[in-house]
What we know:
- By secondary structure, this protein is mainly α.
- Among the domains are: 8-44, no CATH class; 122-179, Irregular (High-Potential Iron-Sulfur Protein, Chain A).
- Helix content is 52%, strand content 5%.
- The chain has a three-stranded mixed beta sheet, covered by helices on one side.
- The longest helix is centred in the middle third of the chain and has 65 residues, at 56-120.
Amino acid sequence: MTKPSKSTQDQTLASEELVVPGRRRVLEIMGMAAVALPVLGLQACGSDEGAAPASSSTMDKVEPAMKDVAAKAEKAADSMADSAKTAMDDMSESVESAAEEVKADVQQAAGQAQTIATDAMAQVDENGPQAMGLGYKHDATTIENARYKAGQQCSNCALYQGGSDEWGGCPLFTGKQVKATGWCSAYSAAS
């Protein structure tokens, strides 16, 4: 037998490529993606001898499975959205709670700072020149001044800065504290 020439071999290969039926050629081109065609009941284009049309029973089996997968995916997405919303709500509550705690801590620290500052101030000396000039006494019930009225004392004077504390600041005695039960001639009833 004689061996065909190179050009004859090339022509034979070229003609064999043209002879490959349409469906097989599509499957060769598509590669692994073509595996899904029979599962889904689809046919490639072209006409193969003996190729059976897709049966409706195959589609009847695949369609419910696809719907089930879609339903599960939707349920999973809803679940993830609910989880994310819950996490965001929890985080929001946590941030609000932390802000309230910080606010309470700041208020407490401010109160403590005020107490420390007040405690650090010296008390007015009743025998000091300024106290004697204003007729200041630590105990208002011992006052012998015509301007004094019963019940008047530093704690209900507009100038008293000690709130409900026993000792507090007074702008007339800068840097010093007056006693809540004290009194001086500059008394002005708090409104």
